[in-house]
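Q: what sequence does this backbone want?
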């Protein structure tokens, strides 16, 4: 189990040295009022300039030690906070990459973004503040109170009368802080989700004149964040004014009692000055406690959210018992055996069965929400099937290491993405692919003609999400990326929807000619994209209602005929 303490343990030596230096500096600061009182009450009346100079020099040395120690310790604390947060952020990002799709759905992407940004920032602040004030404040508080008893015991009792009231305030506020800041971070997650969705769909929002609607939606979410932040801020900040009031009332009482004791000859002026100095030190220490509680409450809530992700179990581990191939299985083969799957209880696929041999092609077609993309997600093991079995090369997908399984595939997903980088970088995608293979893949994907026409050709830059390219151009680059890796199995999930019929036809012909040994699974909305596949799987509400070639389905599958008729009547198909 990963915890914040585990990350800090790496720096325990540096932290120990820093805390020791901080303690020395703070103790030196505590002795300054006592030296001052001694100089006023005992040295000054003697009239000895030498003695005053020596004690003044001693005060200067103590002041330098206090200042220097605090500066050095604070710098070490900042370094520990920085290094620890860097490691936490790296581990958290890595963990998000290895979460199963189900776990990502559970946490949500906006929440992961929030945990990587604002939550790690809160943890950074907490680690730094605990080191800067975690030792200094207790020493100033306990040491200050203890020294007040040595300076003027009667006045110290006045100070102690305030402590129970301060303790009640601190305990109440600290018990509420973590809960309030956890609620606040959830509200921030919702705001991040809203901003992410709006920025992704900004063109659609403008095109449909929904700008004002989105503004109102964001304003509601923002108001909720402000309300929760205000509630947390007011609750946590209540300690500061209450402590100030109580301590200032105590200070007033100290001044009155101290004046009386001096006038009666029961106390010295230097002692009263030293006592008020210690009282000020104690006041600042108590105010710092309120700051610590605010940051610790934020940081603890954030650390808990971060550790929840870091400690999520690896759901898609390799099952060694399933890592043996079926007898007679060949590379590139795919088999579904009575596969069923549901999202949080909502059925997505029911009893799906089909088999593909090496070099065969499967077209998958069906209405929106029929389970086409879910089929791909199960094949790539983004999710594990609830029932049934899926094999690749005769081996159950659960018997593969994730990297080994996915290295067999070239995939273009329905909502795939392009980086803000060059055409070459997008096709190679940080893989060991030479220029010749890259250009050949671009040619086979029908991307070469428009890439070669660009001024910088394969060095041409794409903007974020490839916004400077058309939909068809982006899809061809994505297909080139999938082909460049020379996959055993090629999966194209609605990857030709933006292509014109001529280009789509040419692409399918090229795939059949140039990749005869590659098993192809093509998901599409258009019959023209799948009708020439060796097998066509027709899905309807998660169930297989047809499996066969085009001629067989036209004769035996009403759903397939209905799709054909609707597209033919709309002018989208010519048989």
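A:
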């Amino acid at each position: 189990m990963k915890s914040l303490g585990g990350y800090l343990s790496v720096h325990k030596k540096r932290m120990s040295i820093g805390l020791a230096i901080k303690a020395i500096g703070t103790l030196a600061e505590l002795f300054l009022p006592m030296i001052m009182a001694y100089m006023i009450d005992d040295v000054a009346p003697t009239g000895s300039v030498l003695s005053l100079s020596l004690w003044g020099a001693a005060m200067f040395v103590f002041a330098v030690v206090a200042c220097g120690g605090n500066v050095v310790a604070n710098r070490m604390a900042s370094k520990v906070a920085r290094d620890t947060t860097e490691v936490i952020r790296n581990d958290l990002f890595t963990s998000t990459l290895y979460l199963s799709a189900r776990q990502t759905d559970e946490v949500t992407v906006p929440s992961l973004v929030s945990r990587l940004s604002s939550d790690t920032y809160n943890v950074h602040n907490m680690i730094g503040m605990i080191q800067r004030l975690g030792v200094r404040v207790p020493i100033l508080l306990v040491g200050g109170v203890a020294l007040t008893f040595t300076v003027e015991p009667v006045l110290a009792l006045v100070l102690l009368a305030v402590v129970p009231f301060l303790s009640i305030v601190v305990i109440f506020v600290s018990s509420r802080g973590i809960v309030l800041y956890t609620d606040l971070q959830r509200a921030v997650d919702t705001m991040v989700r809203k901003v992410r969705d709006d920025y992704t769909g900004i063109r659609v929002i403008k095109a449909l004149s929904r700008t004002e609607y989105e503004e109102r939606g964001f304003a509601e979410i923002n108001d909720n964040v402000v309300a929760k932040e205000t509630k947390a801020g007011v609750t946590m900040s209540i300690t500061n004014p209450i402590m100030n009031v109580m301590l200032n009332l105590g200070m007033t009482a100290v001044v009155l009692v101290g004046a009386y004791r001096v006038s009666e000859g029961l106390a010295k002026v230097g002692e009263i000055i030293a006592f008020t100095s210690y009282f000020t030190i104690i006041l600042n220490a108590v105010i710092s406690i309120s700051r610590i509680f605010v940051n610790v409450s934020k940081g603890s809530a954030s650390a808990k959210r971060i550790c929840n992700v870091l400690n999520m179990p690896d759901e898609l581990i390799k099952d060694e018992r399933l890592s043996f191939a079926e007898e007679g299985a060949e590379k590139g083969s795919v088999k579904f055996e009575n596969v069923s799957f549901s999202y949080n209880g909502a059925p997505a696929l029911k009893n799906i069965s089909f088999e593909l041999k090496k070099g065969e092609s499967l077209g998958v077609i069906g209405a929106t929400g029929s389970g086409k993309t879910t089929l791909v997600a199960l094949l790539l093991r983004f999710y594990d099937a609830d029932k049934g079995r899926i094999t690749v090369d005769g081996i159950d997908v659960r018997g593969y290491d994730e990297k080994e399984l996915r290295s067999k595939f070239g995939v273009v997903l329905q909502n795939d993405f392009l980086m803000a980088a060059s055409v070459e970088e997008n096709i190679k995608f940080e893989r060991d692919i030479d220029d010749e293979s890259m250009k050949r893949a671009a040619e086979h994907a029908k991307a070469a003609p428009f890439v070669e026409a660009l001024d910088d050709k394969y060095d041409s830059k794409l903007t974020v999400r490839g916004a400077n390219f058309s939909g068809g151009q982006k899809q061809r680059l994505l297909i080139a990326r999938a082909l460049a890796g020379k996959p055993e199995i090629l999966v194209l999930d609605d990857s030709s929807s933006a292509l014109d019929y001529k280009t789509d036809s040419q692409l399918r012909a090229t795939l059949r000619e140039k990749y005869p040994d590659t098993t192809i699974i093509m998901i599409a909305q258009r019959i023209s994209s799948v009708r020439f596949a060796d097998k066509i799987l027709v899905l309807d509400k998660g169930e297989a209602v047809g499996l066969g070639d085009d001629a067989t389905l036209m004769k035996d599958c009403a759903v397939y005929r209905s799709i054909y008729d609707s597209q033919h009547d709309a002018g989208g198909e010519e048989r």
